[in-house]
Amino acid sequence: MSLPHALLTSLAERPGSGSELASRFDRSIGYFWQATHQQIYRELARLEANGWVRSVAIEGARGRKRRYDLLPQGLEELARWTAEPMDPPAIRDELMVRLRAESVIGPSALAQRLTEMLSLHRQKLAAYQAIERRDFVSSSSDRRRRLQHLVLKAGVDFERQRIAFYEDALSILEDDG
Amino acid sequence: MSLPHALLTSLAERPGSGSELASRFDRSIGYFWQATHQQIYRELARLEANGWVRSVAIEGARGRKRRYDLLPQGLEELARWTAEPMDPPAIRDELMVRLRAESVIGPSALAQRLTEMLSLHRQKLAAYQAIERRDFVSSSSDRRRRLQHLVLKAGVDFERQRIAFYEDALSILEDDG
DNA sequence: TCCACCATGTAATGCGTTACATGATTGA
DNA sequence: TCAATCATGTAACGCATTACATGGTGGA
Question: Could you tell me whether strands A66-70 and A53-57 are parallel, antiparallel, or unpaired per DSSP bridges?
Fold first, then answer.
């Protein structure tokens, strides 16, 4: 259960409102942990009830906007969680199920779906590589930057592997598809 | 929502009881889609209510064991689903959140956790490679076998990438950890 | 003034997880 | 005969998802 800690992490990087956090989950943090604004508002309320964050109304802002700040207890909780024992990641890959189904029931339109996915992943890869070129040109960096770069490279590698997999799968499916 | 279709796929490969399906989800299918026996029994009841499978009591078996068979309508549903438009996979990687947290809050015991995970993934990789050597020695095969091999290779590649990632992460964390 | 949008929130539903329950069978 | 185990199932809870609601702000 990482959503509360993903929020604490994001607030440790920089305070912000619910909608700002939601937009971070559409970009940086969201590359490896997604959340909708409903989840985020619900969770922020809990974090505040736990005394891990506090919020103040932002005067002069649109609507009822509030800024959330990490409290010392929240930082403690984040440190505790980071070092906690960890389960291996749960893999749930619908594509593999579909390929296995196809291998039993015979050719289908799955190849077209793969072609669509392939172009999506190529776009994602290009986006990650653009970030890498823009933000991580210098090779020598401090610990923090090296860790950030590492996480980005994991995204790049994942997309690369995914693309290679789609290409292999298509070459099999299209042999007789 | 792939659990019902993972079950249909497994039953298309071979009929079986709830407990047999549960044990398949601890092995082959479970490598990319996990399910507990509670989920499986609940879902089997729904599949039967939908007319996609039927079940008969197995005489002479332990307890109330029932065999589930795929019905023609279930096969149709499986084919329909296989070719359906597909969303990109949802990535939820707790490790990346933790690394990002560490990059903000500074050194922790996360390196020890990574060492533990590393050995787990090395075991998984070895298990996959053993299956590959045992079941996929011949390079020339039919479509069905090639697809099965492809899915297994995806598992191998995933574990390999994961291992490389842990090693990189450890080398950064241990510089000063 | 009024419409579109922003920021926050409520409600309903469903899958996934955990704990517990029941009946039957095997083996010591 | 009795304990362990197998096979199936029930119940409760939580996160994730989707649809919808509210109120305020800015621009046409």
Answer: antiparallel
Asked whether residue B56 falls in the same domain as residue B16, the answer is: yes
Instruction: Decide if B47 contacts B8 (C-beta within 8 A).
Output: yes
**C-alpha A41: how far from chain center:** 18
B118 touches chain A (CB under 8 A): no
pLDDT value, residue B130: 95
Distances in Å between the Cα of A23 and the Cα atoms of A34, A49, B67, B162 are: 11, 23, 49, 28
Say whether both B145 and B110 belong to one domain.
yes
Beta pairing partners, A16: A68
Please name the residue ranges forming H helices in chain B.
3-13, 18-24, 37-49, 72-82, 94-105, 110-135, 143-173
pTM over 0.90: yes
Asked if A29 CB < 7 A from strand D, the reply is no
Cβ within 8 Å, pair B144-A169: no
Does any domain span residue A45? yes
Q: Are residue A77 and residue A141 in the same domain, yes or no?
A: no
- Return the higher-pLDDT residue of A59 and A158: A158
Distance in Å from C8's C1' to A66's CA comes to 10
**Domain-ending residue, one of B59, B82, B105:** B82
Of A82, A109, A137, the last residue of a domain is: A82
Sole residue written with tokens 């210098």: A138
Split into its structural domains, chain A has a count of 2
Question: Residue A74 and residue A12: Cα distance in Å, rounded?
Answer: 9
Is the residue at A89 inside a domain? Answer: no
d(CA B15, C1' C26) / Å:
25
